[in-house]
Every structure is written in structure tokens, then in C-alpha cells.
Amino acid sequence: MEKLILEVTSLCVQFGSFKAVNNVSMKVSAGDKIAILGPNGAGKTSLFNAITGMTLPTQGTVSMGGVAITRASPNRRAELGIARTFQITNLFFGLTVEENLLLAARGLQRRKFSLFSSATLPISEEELVESVLERCHLLTKRHWLVKEISYGEQRQLELAMSLTSSPKVLLLDEPAAGLSPAERVVMSDVIKSLPKDLAIVLIEHDIDLALNLVDRVICMYQGGVLVEGKPDEIRGNKKVQEIYLGKPRNA
Ligand SMILES: Nc1ncnc2c1ncn2[C@@H]1O[C@H](COP(=O)(O)OP(=O)(O)OP(=O)(O)O)[C@@H](O)[C@H]1O
């Protein structure tokens, strides 16, 4: 059994009287590859926000490596090994690919310094940047300005930036959104080649792409978990088909 890293228990996120996330529990172990599916408004992003500290849950708990982080700051969560990408690109367009990565690496490592008694890093900034450039298929673009690379490459760069903190859990919010079919193939390849022990939780509207990348699926509907299972179980699941076809359910 793999080591449990992230645990979400009975989590609720409420906006006024509306429950965007309703009693969601999830266990993520080292190396898990999990997709969170669900139609628009199902609560997927709100769940990510509660895990990363951008929204505080109204009920329930989040823990990372056994440490309770339900009310911890986003920075503290990043130090403990949670990283995230966003639906919208979050880059410095007037800087090069490499400069963006160096900025990401420096910001996160400075925070990590305070955790170590000695100021030695396990890997140099340059080595780190080199390795994530390679991993995200961006080595040939390292000196290009971000505004000059394609949208697909910008999304790869975002993923690369999230890897500079050497996370234990990576939350990917719609990594293939807006990508062309060819760019989707590259993004899938990049995700597939991420370290084996890195846990990945991804939100994705392209169901086929998502099911090919993961070994577990959580399908959300109206804030709650509708179904959980392996990709093959989800493909043939009637409830999942109904919510995607928009038919009303008798819950
Ligand atoms: N800050 C907020 N204030 C009020 N309601 C919100 C807020 N954030 C999200 N919601 C509502 O919560 C519900 C869940 O939103 P959320 O973005 O988590 O869904 P989602 O599954 O990620 O949807 P999508 O696939 O469209 O991104 C939606 O009805 C949304 O309008």
C-alpha cells in the first residue's frame, strides 16, 4: 500500500446558503493518478480551492502528510508539498520561459529555506530548471519570450512552474482546456511522464483524455461525490452518462 499523503474528510464549501462542495471525502496516496469529473458547477474548482487554501471550507478537514492544514495559508500548503495549476495562464509574458521558471523556483525555494536548519539545497536552481524544461518538452524554447510560444507551450510552462517546488501532490485544473488536438497529445505525454511517485489529481472536461491518464475517477455532481471508481467502471456508468447528457436524475 502506498503512503497516504493528502486526506480530505467530509469537506463542505458553502457560499451563503449554497453548498458548492457537499460532504466530500478523498484519500490521495503517493503515485495516485485521480481525475475529478463532473459537469459545470459541480464543485470541482471549489474543492481544489479548499485543498490549496484559496477558500476556507465551512466544514470538514484537510490534512497533508498527517498535518492538519484545513485553515493553513496557501504558502504553508505549498511548503508541505501541494502544487497547483490554474485554468487561466498565470505567466510573465515579457520574460523568457527560463526566467519564468527561475522566478518560480526562487520564490518557492526561499520559502523552503526557512524549514531547513542548513541552507543547502538538494539540487541547484539551474539543475531544477533544466530538469523541468526537459520533462515538459520545453528545452528548445527556454530562451523564447513567453508571448512568442504557442498557447499549448504556455500551458506546459505552467505545469513546469508547478513542478519547481518538487511537490508531492499536483492539482491540475483543466490542463487540456483550449488546446488543439495535437497540443492535447503533447500535454497527455507530459502528464504521463511525470514522476511515478508524484500524486496527481486532475480536473478535466475532456473525459477520454482524463480517463487515459488516471487509475481512479471521482465524479462530482451538485457539490457531492456521485460515483467513484476505475476508468472502465466510469465509462459505462449510467449515472455519469445521465449527468453529462443533462437528463434530470432522481437522486
Ligand atoms: N465565490 C463564489 N461565490 C458564490 N458562488 C460560487 C463561488 N465560487 C463558486 N461558486 C458556485 O459554486 C458552484 C461550483 O462552482 P465550481 O467552480 O467549483 O464548479 P466546477 O465544477 O469547477 O465548474 P466548472 O467545470 O464550470 O469550472 C457553482 O454554482 C458556482 O457558481
From TrEMBL:
GO terms for cellular component: plasma membrane. It holds the Pfam family BCA_ABC_TP_C. Residues 6-247 form the ABC transporter domain. PROSITE patterns: ABC_TRANSPORTER_2 (PS50893). InterPro entries: AAA+_ATPase, ABC_AA/LPS_Transport, ABC_transporter-like_ATP-bd, BCA_ABC_TP_C, P-loop_NTPase. This is Amino acid/amide ABC transporter ATP-binding protein 1, HAAT family. It comes from the Bacteria. Keywords: ATP-binding, Cell inner membrane, Cell membrane, Membrane, Nucleotide-binding, Transport. GO terms for molecular function: ATP binding; ATP hydrolysis activity; L-isoleucine transmembrane transporter activity; L-phenylalanine transmembrane transporter activity; L-valine transmembrane transporter activity. One of its GO terms (biological process) is L-valine import across plasma membrane.
